[in-house]
Amino acid sequence: MHYDDYDHIIPAIGIRYRYPNEYDPDDILIYYDLYSPRAFEKSLSEETMAAIGAGMTTNTDIHGERIPLITDYGIAITGVVDKDRVTLPVHLAVSSRDESDPVLNARSREMDGTVTVNNLAIGNTYVLLRYASYEFTPTEGDANDFIHSRFDVKHEFIAVNSTYVYEDPKKISSTGSVYYRCVLKPDVVRNLSE
Could you tell me the residue ranges of all domains in the chain? Predict the structure, then answer.
């Protein structure tokens, strides 16, 4: 095994910035270390970000993981792939912030999911779709393409506000993933045979 290739996932959950389209070393990154229930904040200067990795590497209370200082894998989730821009902003909050530890053979847990949809027009009918895999989640097409895709659950609602909150009755496994998309229900839903 090449332990130099292993890393610890540190999810960034937010950023505070002065200029939206340019780097500023004083911008603040907000993240979790996945061990503590609190969020951490650090400036985006190279010195500060390097100190995060160095501090974690010297910390002996981090479950024995190795966190390399030289090798690092960064993944930026920039948003939903929606080439035709037919989906609305959707946010998922789950009932647990931590995961079961697979090293200890801990069982996965069932979490509740709360879905918030934004930018709704009052009086319109929308369709919220839940997918079990990214492989089935459309990345292009019109609302009809989404409605005829391989979703697991479909929930229709009429917007009475610009924001809609949906408590999903179907649980979410802590070791799994789900994907939500919301589209405006078309005036005419075409048949698959068309």
Answer: 3-58, 90-184
